[in-house]
Amino acid sequence: IAGITQAPTSQILAAGRRMTLRCTQDMRHNAMYWYRQDLGLGLRLIHYSNTAGTTGKGEVPDGYSVSRANTDDFPLTLASAVPSQTSVYFCASSEGTENTEAFFGQGTRLTVV
Amino acid sequence: GQNIDQPTEMTATEGAIVQINCTYQTSGFNGLFWYQQHAGEAPTFLSYNVLDGLEEKGRFSSFLSRSKGYSYLLLKELQMKDSASYLCAVSNGNYQLIWGAGTKLIIKP
After folding, report:
1. Pairing relationship of beta strands B9-13 and B60-65 according to DSSP bridges
2. With an 8 Å Cβ cutoff, is A25 touching chain B?
3. I need a labelling partner for B43 at 20 to 30 A (CA). Which of A41, A52, A98, B34 fits?
4. Min Cα separation B70/chain A (Å)
5. Which residues in chain B are contacts of A56 at CB distance < 8 A?
């Protein structure tokens, strides 16, 4: 693993199903983030974690949950998917919490039908 | 509210210079980032400004005026590979980045 890895790369999901998007980084970064990117809109922060064991809500947290059991992993769970959650999801990490470069995973393209 | 504005799309010619503007209104300010995103790929970091003035990095430069809530990204000697979206993001001092919708730059031969 080099950098930050997301899985799956794409998924078609039936509405109402539960889904976990995986994110792993090997840079030992303290901060990790989940964003969604929709056409015509900027990246929107779903949840973040400043360090292992802590998480916080971003701009659009409803319908999503996260956990940060260790430094490397930051999974995002959709408890009961809805079509409005169709989007491209990016996981990112950074060494610090605010003023440092963020490194992004390649994204997960999720379609909820 | 918090808002970042960028032009939706710009077109430029290979070898030319283009300036992509970004204006922002945020609850706090702790620095401004520019990222490049090729279609279907992840954003990658280009620059970071926290003080007023111009930061130069090869063919790319970024400018910041905090009093005007304004930044621009200047791309010189444009190459076809510069065709991408350019994202402006502001650190609002609350552990979050506020992102603009991005400017799609189209380079023509």
Report:
1. unpaired
2. no
3. A52
4. 17
5. 95
